[in-house]
Amino acid sequence: MRPGPQALNSCPVCHGCHFGCCERAAQQPVPRDNSREASSKAAVNRHLGAIAEEAPRTFPRAPLSNQPPFWLLLALLEGEVHLPVSCLPLNHPFLPIALSSIRSKMEYFCSMLLISINFLHSEAFHDNGTASHNETTTDPPRENGQPSHLLTSVLILILVFIILIILAGYFFRFRRHRKAVVNSTDKKMPNGILEEQEQQRVMLLRQSPSGPRKYFPIPVELLEDEIRIRAADDGKLFREEFNSLPPGYLQGSLEMANKEENREKNRYPNILPYDHSRVTLMQIDGFQCSDYINASYIDGYKEKNKFIAAQGPKQDTVNDFWRMVWEQKSATIVMLTNVKERKEDKCFQYWPDQGCWTYGSIRVSVEDCIVLVDYTIRKFCIQPQVSDGCKAPRLVTQLHFTSWPDFGVPFTPIGMLKFLKKVKSLNPAHAGPIVVHCSAGVGRTGTFIVIDAMIDMMHTEQKVDVFEFVSRIRSQRPQMVQTDMQYSFIYQALLEYYLYGDTELDVSSLEKHLQQSNSTTPNLVKIGLEEEFKKLTNVRIMKENMRTGNLPANMKKARVIQIIPYDFNRVILSMKRGQEYTDYINASFIDGYRQKDYFIATQGPLPHTVEDFWRMVWEWKCHTIVMLTEVLEREQEKCFQYWLSEGSVSYGEITIDIKNDLLVDSISIRDFLITHNQEKQSRVIRQFHFHGWPEIGIPTEGKGMIDLIAAVQKQQQQTGNHPITVHCSAGAGRTGTFIALSNILERVKAEGLLDVFQAVKSLRLQRPHMVQTLEQYEFCYKVVQDFIDIFSDYANFK
C-alpha cells in the first residue's frame, strides 16, 4: 500500500518515497539560510545525493505494489546522476524545480514534457485536496486515492506515448542535421527492368564555414549510378551541389567593366568580365576605353584560353565583336541563342543574310549557309578595310545551335553532342580561341564549354570532375553555368556520351563496320548490330507524358494500346464545339534531318477515327501521305480504307474524291481532291502506297524503299515543306523505319556521314517503339549500303 497522509508529511522533499532516501537525506546538514528557495534547492540536492547512493541497492528490491504507475529515467545531462521521476509524488511542490535543472540540455521537447508533468502535478494536487476535504464531510468514505490514481494512470500513459514520439522525432532530426543520406528509391532502370543491385547511397559533407562543399571526381563507370542518386527526389542533390559552387564576383576586380564609358556596352549590368581575364582589344586612337568588350578568356580541359566567352553582340558593340574575332585570329564562332526568344532581343544579328556588309573596319560576306534540324552552319569571309592596303581575307565558320528552348534546357543531349562534334571537326588546329556566346555569355555558354572539357577529361583520365571545372571557370568569368538545370544537363550529356559513345560513321567505313558486326571471330572487337539494338531498350517509355492518350475516351481511339503519342509532341486537332476530347488523334510530330516536325507518324485509321485522320491532313496542310501497310494482312484489318476506289466519300466536313490511281513498280500513287465543305476550299493530296513490305519481316531488297523516299522528297519540293503523314498499322515499326531511312539517306547525301543508332534513338524519344524489331534495324543498314552501291558517284561521299 501507498503511505498514508502521515507518512507523506515525513519528508519535506519526497514525502516518504520507497527508496528510503529520506533517512539518508536527514543525516546531511541543513543550510542556515532560511529562505524558502534556498531550503528547497538544498532539500532537492540532499535528496538527489541520497538517491544516487540508495537507488542502485533499493530499486531491485522495491515491491511491485509499491512502485508508481510508471518509471521514467531522465538523464541529468549536467552530471551523471539519474533521477527516478517516480520517486517524487506527482503532487510534490518541488518536482518542477528538479525537472527544470535539465531543461537547458534537452532542447525543445523538454518544454512539452515539463508542461505535461506540471499538468499532472496540478491535477493530482487537486484530487488529493478534494479527497482530504471529503474526509471531513458526511459523505461515505472512499478508498485512499483511487480516482486520483485512475486519472493519473491514464494521463501517464498518454504522456509516455507523447514522450516516445518526441524522442523519436528528435532522434531523426539529429540524424538529418548531422549528415544527409540519400537512398536511391527509384530502382527501375531506363528500360523498365528492375535493378538487382543494392541501394546506392551518397554521403554529403557538412558545409564548412571556411569554404564551399567539396565534390570529388567521378569515375566514368560510376557515372550512371551517381547521376541516378543526384536526380532522386526531383534533383535535390543536383541543386545542393550546384548551390555549393563558388558564387560570382569573388575572384577579381571589375574596374574596366564598371567605367562609365563601358556601361552601355554591357547587355546585362550584373554580367561583367573580370579585369584579369577580360579580352583586351587594340586601342583606337582618339577613342577612350575602345579596348573594352564584354568577353573573357576561358580555359579548356588542358588548353589555356581555348575559348572566349562573350555576350551576344548589341547593335552598338557589333563592330567590336568582329574586331575581336579578327584580332584574336578566331576561326570558329559558336552561337547558342536565337536572335529573339519570347519576343525579346537576345542577340543582335551580326551577319548579313546574304551578300556582304561592313561592320566598322571589318567586311563580312556570306559564303555558304546549311540549315539542319538542330543547328545552322554559316561560312563567312572576313577582311579588314585598312588605309594602307588590304589584308588577306580569312574564313570564319559560325555554328548556330537553334534547338535550345526558350525555357530550361534541350529535351535530350543528343543534338548538343552532335553539334559539339561538328564544332570540333570544323575548328582548324592552329586557329585562335573559339568564340562562344549566348545572350549573357555565361549560362548556355558555360554549359557548352564544360561539356567539351569533361569529354576531353573522360578520354584522358576515365573520370569527370564537373564541380571542380565549373568552380575554376567561374574564377575567369562570373556565373558560368547559371542554373541547376544547366548543371544537371551537363551530367546528362556526359552520361549519354559514355553509354553510347560516338556511333557516327563515314560512308567509306560502312562496309567494314558491317563486316565486323557480322563477324564471329572472337579476336575482333565486335560491336554487333544486335548489341546496338539492345542498347535502344535503354530509351525509357515516358508513361508520365502520355496522360492525354491514356484518358478512357482516347484509349478507344488507339489501334495498339502500347503505342500512345507523348503529350509534348502529339498532333492537336481543333476542338469541336461542345464535344470533349475531339482535339485528340493518335499521331506524333517527328523531326526530319533539316526541319523540325517534318513528319507526322500515325496509326492506320480505325472506322471511328477516319474523320479525325482527314481533319488532321486538312488542318496541318499535309500534301503527302505515305502508307506502308495493306488494308488486310493475314485476314486481319490493319488499316481502314479511308478512300473509295471510285467516286467520292465524305467524313464530317471533308469530302474525298479520287482523281488518279497509278501503280509504279511496288508503289501505288493516288491523287485525291479533298474539299472542306464549310470552308469551301479544296486541295490535292498525293498518297504513296508501298506494297513491297510483306506481311512478315522486311522488304527483300532496299531499292524499293530508296525509290519511295526519292518520290516523296520530290513531291515535297513541289508542294512545300508541310508535314508528311506516314502510317502503317500501329504507326511505329514500319513507320519508324521509313522516317529513320529518310533522315539517314538525307544526311548521307549532304555530309557523307551516317549514324543509324542515334537516328533511331532520336525517333524513340519522340514516339514509343519506333523501329520495332532487330530485323527492321538491320534493314536500315542494308538500305544505306544499297544506296551507296546504286550510285556510281558514291565516292563523293567519302
Automatic annotation (TrEMBL):
Keywords from the UniProt entry: Cell membrane, Cytoplasm, Glycoprotein, Hydrolase, Membrane, Phosphoprotein, Protein phosphatase, Receptor, Repeat, Signal, Transmembrane, Transmembrane helix
Catalytic activity, reaction form: O-phospho-L-tyrosyl-[protein] + H2O = L-tyrosyl-[protein] + phosphate
CC per GO annotation: cytoplasm; plasma membrane
Main location, first listed in the record: membrane
Modified residues (Phosphotyrosine): 794
Location of the Tyrosine-protein phosphatase domain: 238-497, 529-787
Gene3D superfamilies noted in UniProt: Protein tyrosine phosphatase superfamily
Binding positions for substrate per the UniProt entry: 406, 438-444, 482
Transmembrane residue ranges: 150-172
Topology with respect to the bilayer: Single-pass type I membrane protein
Function: Isoform 1 and isoform 2 act as a negative regulator of FceRI-mediated signal transduction leading to cytokine production and degranulation, most likely by acting at the level of SYK to affect downstream events such as phosphorylation of SLP76 and LAT and mobilization of Ca(2+).
Family the entry assigns: Belongs to the protein-tyrosine phosphatase family. Receptor class 4 subfamily.
Name under which the protein is recorded: Receptor-type tyrosine-protein phosphatase
The organism's taxonomic lineage, starting at the top: Eukaryota, Metazoa, Chordata, Craniata, Vertebrata
